[in-house]
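Q: What residues go here?
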């Protein structure tokens, strides 16, 4: 399995040159901790000098494991499940920008918080139908670009639909695109899945998994809480998962310390 960690690049507020400097810093620091890649949480990927990033990626032998898209909803208010068609359209247009960046950098695109939350004008059933139709459009763009989309079940406190792995898998099967895979986040797993059945169930679904997020029970670095990473990662490994596991935590006390502590802890298990 390969190891990465989430970071932003502040591409909306910085010059392309400063973005490249930040990416260089990340590559150098994370390489020294034996990371294989970086997961980028982006807002406006089209503002990035993608050729420059590819050169840096190659020179440090670092991959971009996946692209986080949640800030499209948080900052712009666009979402795939919105009850207003023009807003859903905006969200799909944004997903297209991420797909273009992912195609060039050989990455994948996360469908998480970009699903949005419904307001009183809508309801859970309508929201699900909107998510399904938007997602079908995103999948067709992804198929044409040969990019994988990653559908992430997220806990009920952060989003209104698709909290569990089984609900998400049902949707993935319904959409039926080979470019749509599952993203399992240990933090949401801890909050949403039945602890009695989760390990057996995980064995059955590993082949649908395209990406993994790791955070401990307090959403801090793996090893700081009581999530059973040994069992979790062992099941993934023995059932053939060989792609990225990516640290996505509250970056406290600092990004650098989370990166260092997580890598030291996980390298004993991976
Ligand atoms: C949000 O809780 C999360 O886990 C992100 O990966 C969603 O985009
Ligand atoms: Mn996550």
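A:
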């Amino acid at each position: 399995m390969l190891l990465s960690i989430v970071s932003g690049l502040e591409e909306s507020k910085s010059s392309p040159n400063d973005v490249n400097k930040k990416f260089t810093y990340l590559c150098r620091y994370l390489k020294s901790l034996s990371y294989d890649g970086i997961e980028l949480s982006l807002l406006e990927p089209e503002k990035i000098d993608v050729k420059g990033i590819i050169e840096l990626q190659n020179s440090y032998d670092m991959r971009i494991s996946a692209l986080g898209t949640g800030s499209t909803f948080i900052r712009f208010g666009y979402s795939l499940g919105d009850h207003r068609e023009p807003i859903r359209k905006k969200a799909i247009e944004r997903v297209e920008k991420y797909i273009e960046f992912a195609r060039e950098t050989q990455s994948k695109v996360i469908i998480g918080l970009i699903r949005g939350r419904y307001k009183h004008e809508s309801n859970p059933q309508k929201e699900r139908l909107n998510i399904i139709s938007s997602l079908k459009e995103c999948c067709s763009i992804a198929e044409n670009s040969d990019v994988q989309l990653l559908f992430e079940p997220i806990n009920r406190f952060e989003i209104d639909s698709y909290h569990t792995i089984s609900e998400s898998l049902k949707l993935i099967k319904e959409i039926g695109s080979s470019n749509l895979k599952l993203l399992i986040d240990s933090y949401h797993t801890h909050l949403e899945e039945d602890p009695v059945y989760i390990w057996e169930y995980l064995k059955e679904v590993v082949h649908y998994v395209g990406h993994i997020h790791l955070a401990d029970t307090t959403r801090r670095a793996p090893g700081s809480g009581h999530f059973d990473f040994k069992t979790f990662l062992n099941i993934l490994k023995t059932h053939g998962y060989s792609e990225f596991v990516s640290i996505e935590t509250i970056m406290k006390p600092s990004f650098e310390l989370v990166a260092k502590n997580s890598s030291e802890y996980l390298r004993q298990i991976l």
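A: Context that may help when evaluating the design: The mean pLDDT is 97. The chain has ten helices and eight strands.
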